Predict the 3D structure of the following.
Amino acid sequence: MEPSDVTSVSFHGTLVASEQFYCFVTAKLRQIFELLLYSSVYVGGMAFAMAYASCYIQNLPWNLPVAIVLSLVVFSVYNLNRKTDVAEDALNHGKRYSVTSRFGRPLFLAALVAYTGALIIAANAGPASALLAAVPLVSGIIYSVPLFPQFCRYRRLKEIPAIKNIVVAGAWALSFSLLPAFLTGSHPDISSLIVFALIFGYVFIATVLPDIRDREGDASTRVYTIPVILGVERTRIFLTAFNFIMAILIMSLGFSHLSPAVLVVLIISFAYTQICILSIGQSRTDDFLVDVISDGQFLLIGALCFILNSGFLSPARIFFSFPMFPWVI
């Protein structure tokens, strides 16, 4: 064998080994990402950022227990809800079902421990905080567990069109608007109402978007969600109108009560939501849009609130820094 042949074989072997290593690392990273995503650790992190945004909008002092309680509550409720949605997940979410079924017992125990810890932390601030922390769990049980007799058309509240979306949105809105106030020793005010409306609108839309993705599976199992009833295009129009109405309502309430920085945050949040609404319905990207982009909206909003609160970015300064306003800077 010529030396050049040996060199070629050696190079080829190195290239193959490198490709195998790259594939191995990529596969492991994908597994870690899917575990974080489908175990609800990701949405728990989003809740942490949402708690920060709530404190910022309400002009409350940053309080780590607030974020911990809300993160643990969201992580726990989502994992507990998986136990009642096994059949739906097996049909509509093959990847998520694979992860949650494989780690079912550890995730269930982690969810119980997480909620217990959240209730203990909240209870230290008083019974009102403990009750508010329990709202998502109670709401989840009420709408997920069969409450009606078999002869009824619907066995669970979540099977009634739009009830699931309203109940989940209401539970999130109550917790994220009032718990930060109570846990920081403050009293709810008009800004708490604004946060309630903001979270309610966001969560309502964020729970309808997966229903658009899952409409075929829901229709085959006779689960009559909003997209099953209205269809994709009409649902998109409905969500656009809903987002616009919520934006007008919240901006009207906040115009005289919130700072310009907060108003900028709200505008960005509504724009982000609208982009998600307009993007849903493409089968190739719906999973990523729903599970990562839409669910991660408040990671961006929370980060933006942190930047603004830290003084790194001033909306007024940016606006007036253009050449047409040279005397302001």
In short: The longest helix spans residues 3-38. The chain has 16 helices and no strands.
